[in-house]
Write a structure and sequence with these properties.
By secondary structure, the protein is of the alpha+beta class. It has two domains: about 140 residues, 60s Ribosomal Protein L30, Chain: A (2-Layer Sandwich), CATH 3.30.1330; about 250 residues, 2-methylcitrate dehydratase PrpD (Orthogonal Bundle), CATH 1.10.4100. About 55% of the residues lie in helices and about 10% in strands. Helix 3 crosses helix 16, helix 7 crosses helix 10 and helix 10 packs antiparallel against helix 11. It is globular. The termini are far apart. About 0% of the residues have low confidence.
């Protein structure tokens, strides 16, 4: 395999598969607030959080991690300012104490944080302004959850980064435009697992742990536990229920970290748990499971990069598609059959809307994985949808681009209407 492509794919996995505590949108706000406090050099008297619509949508209904049930932008920003450690990035709220939570609740009641909706910016945009007397600091995040593009203090810009989406990657080596299905499969077949083993081991350990926690305690609506009680003897539904259970816990305040994919813990969970469950049942070795996870993670990132980090297109779809391809890989599927799996999944469940992070994400994960496994089963019999049928293109890459265009461009008005409904307009 071309060495440059190989190194890029390793870099993508290192960039994508990082631990995060709770839903990544409130975490991004908390991270920005903690950073604004640090730049200010003292605790703020007031902070203002300017957020894009998709940030507001994904923070409104989800429990902020380590908050004892607090929800919303004001809670995330205030808790980040009070007890967050910006050096921990996606785990910024890990050090939060009971005293921090009590202080944050008091500050929120006193109007410490104001939230403002920002139009005309990237779907993932956060600006935190912190003020203390005559001093101020501003932190801007764009395109990716921890991608700070600007830092200002007392009206002077002290850090500025190119904020174009194609320049937003934390590492210049992370060029996702190099991704394609054929090279992903070749990379999975040939990668020296020692280059990615620690990443994948951590992904399995953390994501299975939160899944077991969700299954045991039935957080939120208890989708995962319900599905397990109904159909747990079936491999398909056991795999689906375990993924849903992880989301149940994560969306409802469980303080355990997960390893994310495409900036989303739910997507990381959706990829990991089905592959883990199928690998156990098929008696696959750890190395065989890791190679399958390489397929699942990179296929999901490949699809998601065409859609964008945040949109009206539910990310469980691309993650479930990645998981289904990984399962097919463990069954020995050919390149053509993996392409069929992608087509069958995306052209079935593609277009499921994202109406924010919340308890029902677990149900959407279950629906997406059910479609993914159907797509995998169809491909095993060499059955697929044909070019010209709906969004199916002449090649798998064209099909992925078509789906991405619908999610990125076609669903803009859908995204706007969802946000208007959620905020009561």
């Amino acid at each position: 395999m071309d060495r440059k492509v190989y190194d890029t794919y390793v870099a993508i996995l290192k960039h994508e598969l990082v631990p995060a505590l709770g839903c990544t949108e409130p975490i991004a706000i908390a991270y920005a607030a903690a950073k604004a406090r640090d730049v200010l050099g003292k605790f703020p008297e007031h902070i203002t959080a300017y957020c894009s619509g998709n940030i507001i949508k994904n923070v409104k209904g989800v429990v902020v991690p380590n908050s004892k049930g607090m929800r919303g932008i004001e809670a995330a920003a205030t808790l980040g300012a009070v007890g967050g450690n910006a050096e921990l990035e996606f785990e910024v709220l890990e050090p939060v104490t009971e005293n921090d939570i009590a202080r944050a609740k008091q500050l929120i009641a006193e109007g410490f944080c104001t939230c403002r909706f920002v139009e005309g910016r990237d779907n993932l945009y956060i600006r935190i302004e912190a003020v203390a007397g005559t001093e101020s600091s501003i932190i801007e995040i764009e395109h990716e959850h921890t991608n700070i593009t600007s830092i200002s203090k007392n009206g002077t810009v002290i850090f500025k980064k190119d904020n174009k989406p194609e320049k937003a990657s934390i590492s210049a080596e992370v060029d996702k435009s190099t991704l394609n299905v054929r090279d992903i499969i070749e990379f999975a077949n040939t990668v020296n697992l020692d280059d990615v083993r620690d990443l994948l081991k951590r992904q399995v350990e953390l994501n299975t742990a939160i899944s077991k926690e969700g299954l045991a305690k039935g957080y939120g609506s208890g989708i995962g536990r319900l599905l397990y009680e109904m159909n747990g003897e079936s491999l398909q539904w056991r795999a689906i229920s375990m993924a849903a259970a992880g989301s149940d816990a994560r969306m409802n305040g469980c303080p355990m970290p997960v390893v994310i994919n495409s900036g989303s813990g739910n997507q990381g969970i959706t990829i990991t748990l089905p592959v883990y469950e199928y690998a156990k049942t098929l008696n696959k070795t750890e190395d065989e499971m890791y190679r399958a996870l390489v397929i699942g993670n990179l296929i999901s990132v490949h699809i998601k990069r065409h859609i964008g980090n945040l949109s009206a297109f539910c990310g469980a779809t691309n993650a479930a598609c990645g998981a289904a391809c990984a399962i097919g890989y463990m069954y020995g599927y050919s390149y053509e059959q993996i392409c069929m799996t992608i087509t069958n999944t995306l052209c079935n469940i593609g277009g499921m809307v994202c109406d924010g992070a919340k308890s029902s994400c677990a149900a959407k994960i279950a629906s997406a994985l059910n479609a993914g496994i159907l797509g995998f089963e169809m491909a095993g019999k060499n059955k697929t949808f044909c070019a010209g049928e709906g969004l199916v293109g002449k090649s798998i890459e064209e099909t992925i681009e078509n789906i991405g265009r619908v999610g990125r461009e076609g669903m803009r008005s859908t995204d706007s209407e969802i946000l208007n409904i959620m905020v009561g307009n």
